[in-house]
Design brief:
alpha+beta; three-stranded antiparallel sheet; 3 strands
Length: about 100
Amino acid sequence: MTSHGPVLSKVLSRASDNTHGLSSEEMKVPKYELIIYWSAEDEALIAEVPELPGCMADGQTYEEVVARVQVVIDEWIATAKELGRPIPEPKGRLIYA
């Protein structure tokens, strides 16, 4: 998988301030629920986005998997826009577990 070093660095640097380093543009990004679990088969954490079919990423740490899934969410939304498909609104906490 491609390394997302700069993205991970940005996520980690956000943790130290109250706004988490988010720009006004980034704060407009929809926030989808993530389900994160360990996959013994993949030997990695997996993050799935239930509201965006097929949207998932993997990583060795929580920080890494969250940074990677954010990239995949952005790509999922960009592809849906290009294809003229609807983009689901985040529904907040979903009950799956």
